[in-house]
Amino acid sequence: MSTITTKDGVEIFYKDWGPKDARPIVFHHGWPLSSDDWDNQMLFFLQNGYRVVAHDRRGHGRSAQVSDGHDMDHYAADAFAVVEHLDLNNAVHIGHSTGGGEVTRYVAKHGQPAGRVAKAVLVSAVPPIMVKSDANPEGLPIEVFDGFRKGVADNRAQLFHDIASGPFYGFNRDGAKVYPGVIQNWWRQGMMGSAKAHYEGIKAFSETDQNGDLKAITVPTLVLHGDDDQIVPIADAALKSIKLLKNGTLKVYKGFPHGMLTTHAETLNPDLLAFVKG
To answer: Which residues form the catalytic set?
Structure first.
């Protein structure tokens, strides 16, 4: 397996496919998954002549199940360690859900200062901040995330099955076409990771304030969101993020779920390619 070791001694697994002289597309996965969640998009961009790179977040997938560092700062720093190791330049970073938060922090704190990022894409992404507060009254109550934490601690195998078979892909909607293999693959990816990383990662994706990160980003940024996202509601995410980005473009997909990259890849992939080429 291809791995790098971060400055704080964490082994991070990554994939690096395609010509080394091609433009790199870097993918950042959501909670509690792994880089395998990007199989469709990685093959698509590979077939279109790009170099594709994706890593498993610390504590997730095949990366080390370490005790510490399950926060957005470490997530972004780990991504930067992979980018530096592979010496990627002029890269496009695409993040889904929690991975969208990781991309946002990465671009603002590492990619732009180092001159290594050209564009960014935030898909069904968690910024600017999910949890409800006086400053963010439209957010989800902390009890929602406490429920996720309880589910991870009590029986994460059942929690992961319930999320994948229900709201994540919109399989709980009337008339939805349900793919059992997609549910099983989501469950498989989740169960590969560490319960501690998944438990602490809930705070990272729900309580990290990324208003400042979004304001700091100057590279062209595409924001994609489904208006039937039951995991990261669009009103408190994409519709706010686009107002903070200096160079952002928003595209809303009517009726699409949180996991639209999987259920509607035939629609999303050409849009991603057009933005990368544009």
So the answer is: 97, 229, 258
The pLDDT of residue 1 is above 90: no
In contact, 252 and 225? CB cutoff 8 Å = yes
Side-by-side strand order, sheet with 11-17: 3-5, 11-17, 51-55, 24-28, 91-96, 117-123, 221-226, 248-253
d(CA 157, CA 155): 5
Which domains, ranges and CATH numbers included, belong to the chain?
3-277 (3.40.50.1820)
* Helices and strands, counts by H and E, the chain: 11, 8
pTM, full prediction: 0.98
Q: What are phi and psi of 155, to 5 degrees?
A: -165, 75
Q: How far apart are CA 89 and CA 95, in angstroms?
A: 17
- Strands (DSSP E) contained in 195-278 are 221-226, 248-253
Chain segment 163-173, per-residue pLDDT in tens: 999 999 999 99
Burial-class residue 7 by CB neighbours within 10 Å (0-12, 13-18, 19+).
exposed
* Range list of β-strands (E), the chain: 3-5, 11-17, 24-28, 51-55, 91-96, 117-123, 221-226, 248-253
